[in-house]
Design a protein that fits this description.
3 helices
């Protein structure tokens, strides 16, 4: 039975996890600047935090929706021609083993 930690680690290392992480990182930076501007303007900080929390949830949901709509890209197998192995005759021209003399 796998532990939850290893499953979370695999999910975080996957391409999907990386995309979600990057989107949330960008949203966090945007939210930080938005909160700072609200503080400078003198707006209610609690309301600003609530709005930014909703924005983060919506952004994460949008990223997931885009991933679901995006078709999976299949890897193409490389086209290789089969190599024929050349068979050479016995190197020494004898069929017996040299130790069997």
């Amino acid at each position: 039975m796998k532990t939850a930690g290893s499953t979370v680690l695999k999910a975080a290392k996957s391409n999907t996890g990386k995309m979600i992480g990057n989107a949330l990182k960008e949203q966090a930076i945007s939210s930080g600047t938005q909160l700072l501007s609200d503080v400078v303007r003198g707006n209610d900080l609690e309301e600003s935090l609530h709005n930014e929390g909703q924005n983060m949830r919506y952004k994460a949901a949008d990223v997931l929706d885009n991933l679901i709509k995006e078709p999976k890209k299949r890897k193409k197998k490389p086209i290789t021609r089969e190599r024929k192995r050349r068979t050479y005759g016995n190197r020494y021209g004898e069929t017996s083993d040299w130790l069997s003399d």
